[in-house]
Design a protein that fits this description.
By secondary structure, this protein is an all-alpha fold. The protein has 14 helices and no strands.
Length: 355
């Protein structure tokens, strides 16, 4: 690439350079996944069975789907904590419209549009109004949950046709994968291509590194970030549909607490909370590690309510370890620069003897 082009595209450098630390982190995740598999098989002979793999994918599919756009949002330097409420609002909307005898295809369209609108509101408040995404999405977390409560109230809708509930409870034909896990794999491939092999993905990395520099370089920062929030809203709406069909129940509090799991997976994947670093491969491995660890603990009769402790520990470790590594690298670089700048010591000269 010519120097003039490099100035225009601050994200061009570096797809390889950015992936280097991500690949190191992913290598560590592979070791973690193998260790969890060994631990799980040691505590229960059921862990490495096809039936357990199906249950593992079934219980994590919706979280994994929401983690993909969340990874891009955090790489871009933002965050979306409203995903669980968007899921709950979509579930409530599904229940209300089905109870009113809407055709299911029309309901799907309305739910996806609603999810896109929820994401667009987040994006508008962050990029156009200039509010911090943490504050905005905490606000819409409460707003969308309130809308779900208004839509459905204390009612429960559970008379969905078996054709649809089977999607939430059965495997894809000739596989041991639930439909939600299959959808996650397909979406992960699409997200990986977009993030790692397109100008859009390079823009996401660039604005996560330095949003001002990206803006001055001509990147459409506001449009890209708004798009990411819209995609996150649609993914959460899709997860809401799958979640409802899996439980065969639409209630206003579906999905409560899932945002923490989604963020934990993304940070465990090696995505920097400060933006600019991460990979979809890491997200895939983090989903395996997160789901495998929780499943193994449950097979040991670990208190299900206490699995939140594990999530909290994973969050702390995922934030602490990369920052310690970054600090160590910066100290080493500073020491190397100082060593290079120090002038060589003058050689000591011995007094000459007269002969």
């Amino acid at each position: 690439m010519e120097p003039s082009q490099a100035a225009v595209d601050p994200g061009h450098v570096s797809v390889r350079a950015r992936l280097r630390p991500a690949l190191r982190w992913e290598s560590g995740l592979v070791v973690v996944v193998v260790a969890i598999a060994i631990f799980g098989s040691a505590v229960s002979p059921q862990f490495l069975t096809a039936n357990n793999f199906f249950n593992l994918g079934l219980n994590t599919g919706e979280i994994a789907i929401m983690a993909l756009p969340m990874a891009l949002i955090i790489i871009s330097g933002e965050i979306d904590l409203s995903v669980e409420s968007t899921l709950g609002m979509s579930s409530a909307l599904l229940g209300v419209l089905w109870a009113d005898h809407w055709p299911m295809l029309a309901i799907f369209v309305v739910i996806l549009v609603t999810g896109a609108a929820a994401g667009a509101l987040n994006g508008f408040l962050v990029t156009r109004v200039g509010l911090p995404s943490l504050a905005v999405t905490i606000g819409t977390l409460a707003l969308y949950r309130g809308i779900a409560l208004i839509l459905l109230g204390p009612r429960t809708v559970s008379n969905f046709p078996a054709t649809y509930t089977n999607v939430g409870l059965t495997a894809i034909p000739h596989t041991d994968l639930p439909y939600s896990a299959g959808i996650f794999i397909v979406l992960a491939i699409i997200f990986a291509i977009v993030l790692h092999a397109t100008p859009f993905g390079r823009s996401v990395y660039a604005m996560g590194d330095n949003a001002e520099a990206a803006l001055f370089a001509g990147l459409r920062v506001k449009r890209v970030k708004t798009t990411l929030f819209i995609v996150s809203g649609m993914a959460s709406a899709l997860a809401g549909v799958l979640f409802t069909f899996r439980l065969n129940t639409a209630v206003q509090n579906n999905g409560v607490g899932l945002s923490l799991d989604v963020v934990a997976i993304v940070l465990l994947a090696g995505v920097s909370i400060f933006g600019g670093k991460g990979s979809i491969g890491g997200v895939f491995l983090a989903v395996l590690a997160f789901a495998g660890l929780q499943n193994a603990l449950l097979l040991t009769n670990f208190n299900q309510e206490a699995t939140g402790v594990v999530t909290g520990i994973l969050l702390l470790v995922s934030v602490f370890v990369p920052n310690v590594a970054m600090f160590v690298r910066s100290v080493r670089r500073a020491a190397t620069r100082m060593t290079r700048r120090m002038p060589p010591e003058p050689a000591l000269s011995m007094p000459r003897k007269d002969t």
